Amino acid sequence: QVQLVESGGGLVQPGGSLRLSCVASGTIASRHTMGWYRQAPGKQREFLASITSVGIPNYLDSVKGRFTISRDNGKYTVNLQMNSLKPEDTAVYYCNLRTWFLNGGSRDTWGQGTQVTVSS
Which of 14, 34, 39, 62 is paired with 88 by a 20 to 30 Å CA distance? Predict the structure, then answer.
C-alpha cells in the first residue's frame, strides 16, 4: 500500500514563491507517475503537473513557466516549485501517485492535501 505525505503549503504574497514536497512510502510499482493537482473552493480538482518514473514532466498549459515539477527517485519524493504566485492559485494542493498496470488500467493514490493561500 502506498502513502503520500505533503508539506510546504502556507500563506504567500502575490508574486512570491512556494515549494511543495511529497514523499511516497510503501510498495511502489516501477510503472508510475507522480504529480500535483489542486482544488479551489467550489471548483473541481484540476491537474497541474506530473512526472514519470524516468523524469519526463508534463504541465497544465496555464502553469508552464511558473511551476516546475521535479523528483528524487532515490527517495520517491516529488516537488513542485511555484513562482510568481497569483491570488487565483489559492487552493488545496494534492500529491498524486498513479500506478500503471500491464492491462492498461491504473490506480490513483492521493495525499491529504496542503493549503496554499496567495494574498496580500
Answer: 34
